[in-house]
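<purpose> Linking amino acid order to shape
<body> The protein record starts here
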Amino acid sequence: MSVNFFAGAQITDFASRHESFNTDSIIRDFDRRPFFTLYKDNYFVTGTELSQKPTRFNSDVKFQVSFSQRLTKTVLPWNTYLYLFYSQKTMWNVFEESLPLHDINFNPGIGLSKLIISKGRLIGKASFIIEHESNGRDGEASRSWNKVSLTGSVFILPDLMIHGKIWIPIIDGQNNKDILSYSGIFQGGIQYLSTNKRWVVDATFVKRRGWNLHFNTTVNVGFRLGKQANQFLMLHFYDGYGEDLLDYNKYHCRLRIGLLIRPTFFSDF
């Protein structure tokens, strides 16, 4: 009998390292993991608009850096732990003269997380987080908002995860008061890892405000570059609004390709 840890890019057999297991032993195993780790996917991709003829003005590079620092072991009430995180997403117009950075989105926050364990098996994680997102600009280009969010990830199969996130927005940016109509009020998604662990596919859908079926859609397909590596060749597709804060109310349908580096435990969204 074994307990499977879906470790982002790998499944770890818990029983092979422990003669007995229970909730406490699973938590102890998690406590021994690195305090500093990747948070969301880290990637560097380039591509263009699908709905237009490619030009140097509608083609770009998009990259994201994301990491977290766990501040405690699971000694807080209800076996929760506290962590800080930081993500930074950049839209870079590398094909234009002087290679200008179009927009940089800064996303720091603090969260409280709990592992979801059922019948001696780790099946997911739930988090309560407070986060800020802005593009650090002033004047008419300034964009900013905050979220108080509840997130969850559940493995319905060892190689299949569903995830969701809902937030209470606190909009402090004067130039993006209508951001919920474009950047959404909640999201959900699914992630699949192939049996041989070489392919990963995930799709995330962000529901825009309104009584309709309007979503911002992100789909990633990654191929692992080595059997033990956490680096993937990735195809990245985005369709909708809110891809970056500066252009939150502009529609884009873009396809990019590049390098993906994934967390080795949970991938957050």
